[in-house]
Design goal:
The protein is mainly α. The protein contains 14 helices and four strands. It binds a DNA duplex through helix 4 and helix 7. One of its GO terms (cellular component) is nucleus.
Length: about 300
DNA sequence: AAGAACATCAACCGCTCCAAA
DNA sequence: CTTTGGAGCGGTTGATGTTCT
């Protein structure tokens, strides 16, 4: 492939100095970045345009959140990675203020190892061992949920394009500020998850899971911090019918059934969307609580999964 | 205390994509 | 239609920091 342009021109490489950072920030704040290729000369930097762009987008940009990833963010990354693979830039669009590079690094240094430790293949996101039935159960349910999310991420559904627009572009229909600034498809699924869990409580459909009740406190879009709900999930192990319960009309649906239903029934999406827009979106969900901490908290400190974290 | 091993993450490289000529 | 060049993406490297022996 030959030598890089920066080598040929004798441009500086390696870590950026504070002075270089200052020059780059000052220039972009005054003129915008414009053509990255032309920027270094105009800004008085001995760097290639590519290096400047990287430094700006991954480090100097003012709208970047740095530091430790929240467990909520971790969950989002894992879910999106299952859905999108190593498409870091696509994943980054769902994590406001995080860069693709940062997410990629975090995945490679933390999350990948953690999933491996849990016996989950970080590429396929499936349980590596048949013995790990609890996790595969969870994975199965998660997959059904992710399929629905994939539909929303990939493009407009066949029905009701106006609904899609209202979701995909967090704009006029919503007054909540937190909704204005980020893609909504994930939130749709969060809401769905919350609704599903709350329905479980309503219908009191409880099965057993290793004789253990996992109590999951859910904070959905319509739940403010002070109005969190607690749902009890009991999952039947050894039952021929997978029943990580999703209750509907008094019955219990398996993840497969839900997945099929999602595939076959666009009307469901519209109905759900309707419900979400009309009944749920009004609430403040900035305090949407933490998936992992709740799960782990309720599993207890003796749990083998807890020890991984 | 010192060196080895491991972890982290900023930065680079090579490649693809895509718009403009 | 083909070529060209800029922008962006994902994989990888390597400097630095931290932990272990």
């Amino acid at each position: 492939m030959g030598r890089s342009p920066s080598f040929e021109k004798g441009l500086k490489k390696g870590p950026w100095t504070m002075d270089e950072d200052r020059k780059l920030v000052a220039y972009i704040e005054e003129h915008g970045h414009g053509s990255w290729r032309a920027l270094p000369v105009k800004a008085g930097l001995q760097r290639c345009g590519k290096s400047c762009r990287l430094r700006w987008t991954n480090y100097l940009r003012p709208d970047i959140k740095r530091g430790r990833f929240s467990l909520q963010e971790e969950q989002t990354i894992i879910q999106l990675h299952a859905l999108l693979g190593n498409r870091w830039s696509a994943i980054a669009t769902h994590l406001p203020k995080r860069t693709d590079n940062e997410i990629k690094n975090y995945w490679n240094t933390h999350l990948k190892k953690r999933l491996t430790k849990m016996g989950i293949d970080p590429i396929t996101h499936k349980s590596k061992t048949a013995a790990n039935t609890n996790l595969s159960h969870m994975t199965q349910w998660e997959n059904a949920r992710l399929e629905a999310e994939a539909r929303l991420v990939r493009g407009p559904p066949r029905v009701a394009s106006h609904f899609y627009q209202r979701f995909h572009y967090a704009s006029a229909p919503f007054t909540n500020k937190s909704l204005m600034s980020q893609p909504l498809c994930l939130d749709v699924l969060k809401a769905w998850q919350g609704i599903t869990l709350s329905k479980l409580t309503d219908l009191n459909r409880l099965e057993t899971f290793n004789n253990q009740t996992i109590s999951v406190e859910t904070s959905t879009l319509n739940n403010t911090k002070s109005e969190k709900r607690t749902s009890e999930l009991k999952i039947s192990e050894g039952s021929s019918e997978d029943t990580l319960g999703c209750a509907k009309d008094g019955g219990v649906q398996t993840p497969h059934e839900v997945s099929d239903m999602i595939h076959q029934d666009d009307y469901l999406i519209e109905a759900f969307t309707n419900h979400l827009v009309n009944d749920v979106m009004g609430g403040d969900y900035e305090d949407d609580n933490n998936y992992w901490s709740n799960i782990l908290g309720n599993l207890g400190s003796n749990s083998s999964i807890s020890s991984i974290f």
